[in-house]
Amino acid sequence: MKIQVGELDKPDVKALLTEHHNDMLQHSPIESVHALDLSALKAPNITFWTLRINNELAGCGALKKIESGHGEIKSMRTSQSHLRKGVAKQLLQHILEQAKQLNYTRVSLETGTMAAFLPAQKMYEQFGFEICEPFANYKKDPYSLFMTKSQCSF
C-alpha cells in the first residue's frame, strides 16, 4: 500500500470522488450531503491523500483544517474492488498521524445515520471517535452523525 498526497486531477481519483458523492445522494437528501467537490478539495486548508495497491487506486481521504488545533476528516472512500482489505483503516491511521504532526488537539467528522454508514461508524468507534454535537458550521440533522477524537487518543 502506498499513500501519497494529491492526485486530484487523475481520472481514477475523479471517478472515485464522483462515486462517493453519488452514493451519498442515494442515502441522504441533497441538503444533508456534505461531501466536498473537486475544487473544494483543492483548498489550501485541505490535504488530500490517495492510497494505491500495485498502482491501482484503492481509496482516498482528506484532512481539513477547521481552526487552530482542530481538523475534520473528509472524503473517506474505498474503491469497490478494495472493500474489506483494510484500506480505510490504513488511510484513517495515516490521517490521524498527520493530524498529530500538525499538533491538532481534536479531529472530528460527519458521517451519515442510515444503515449504509454503519461500517464507517463502527470503524471510527474502533479508532476512539465518540459521538458529539455538531461542530464548525454544521447544524443538527437527522441524516448526520458527528464524531470527534481528542489528541490524547491519537
Helix content: 25-40%
Overall radius of gyration: 14 Å
User: DSSP helix count?
Assistant: 4
Q: Based on CA inertia axes, which overall geometry fits?
A: globular
Instruction: State the end-to-end distance.
Output: 21 Å
- CATH class equals Alpha Beta
What's the total count of β strands?
Answer: 7
Biggest sheet: strands side by side, in what order?
1-2-3-4-5-7-6
Q: What's the CATH topology label?
A: Aminopeptidase
Order of helices and strands: EHHEEEHEHEE
CATH superfamily: Gcn5-related N-acetyltransferase (GNAT)
Question: What percentage of amino acids are in beta strands?
Answer: 25-35%
The CATH architecture term is 3-Layer(aba) Sandwich
Q: What does this 3D model show about the protein?
A:
About 30% of the residues lie in helices and about 30% in strands. The chain is α+β, with helices and mostly antiparallel strands and about 150 residues long. The chain has one domain: Aminopeptidase (3-Layer(aba) Sandwich), CATH 3.40.630.30. Strand 4, helix 3 and strand 5 form a beta-alpha-beta unit. The longest helix has 17 residues. It is globular, with a radius of gyration of 14 Å. The mean pLDDT is about 95.
For this entry, give a set of tags.
Aminopeptidase, 154 residues, 4 helices, alpha+beta, globular, seven-stranded mixed sheet
